[in-house]
Structures are given as C-alpha cells and as structure tokens.
Amino acid sequence: MSTGLLIAIVGALLSTIVAGLGSAIGVQMAGKAATGVVSERPELFGKLLILQALPGTQGIYGFLVTVLVFVELGFLSGNPALTLETATGWAFFGACMPATIIGFLSALYQARMSVYSIQMTAKQPDAAAKGMTMTVLVETYAILSLLVSILLVTNVM
Fold this sequence. Notes:
This protein is mostly helical. It is 81% helix and 0% strand. It is elongated, with a radius of gyration of 18 Å. It starts with a helix and ends with a helix.
C-alpha cells in the first residue's frame, strides 16, 4: 500500500469516526435532557425523540464522505487503487476535513440547541415545532461542509 493511499484512507475514516463521535455525544446529551422530561411528561416522547435525533445526522454525513472516497478509490467497484501519489492522498485527506471538523462541532452545538428546545417543550409543548426549527438551523453548516467535501472529493482525481 502506498503512502498516498494510506493518507487518503485515514482521511476518509476520520470523517466517519470524528463526525460520528460528535453525533454520538450530541444524541446522548439531548437524550439525557429528554429522559428527565419524559419521566414526568410521557406524552411528549414523540416530540422529544425528534429533538434527540437531530444531532445524529452529522455522523451520517461523515459516513457518506467515507463511502464517496472509497468509491473514488475504486474499493466499492472491486477495482481498488493500489497506489496513489502522496500529494493526491493529502488532497483526499483535505477534502474530508470540512465534513469531519464541522460535522463534529456542529453536532455538539446542535445538541446544545436540542437540549434548550427540549427544556422549552417541557414548559410549552405547543412550542416543539419552533424548537425543532431552531435546532435544524444549526444543521445548515453541517450540510454546507458536506457539500464542500463532496465537491472536493469528486474532483481530486
């Protein structure tokens, strides 16, 4: 395995690992807040479940970038690249970083917004949709970083 190929694979794997870690932490944070509310207001479970799930999307975005890199490298077609120039490996690595870094951070910030929205829903159940809307706005930056990573990954080679 060439150094360039190893660098590209590490970048791809970091995208899934780091963005997934942010999502796992985020879903846990929101879930922790939701369990307190549901223990007293079980009828709010459906609304709170949505708020808990929202920080989980960044992990999916990181996974998509990993799959896209593996497609570009031919791993999923059965014709994998066995060598890759080091500069090309670094280009793949760099292409993964927007979804990796912003995915991690936005999952954590979206989780904080989810917690606040869960607290608001506990006090005003009819405000759940407003809380969801405010929480989804944080997602915008994860989506933008995903798009940047997709554009970069698909134009490396």
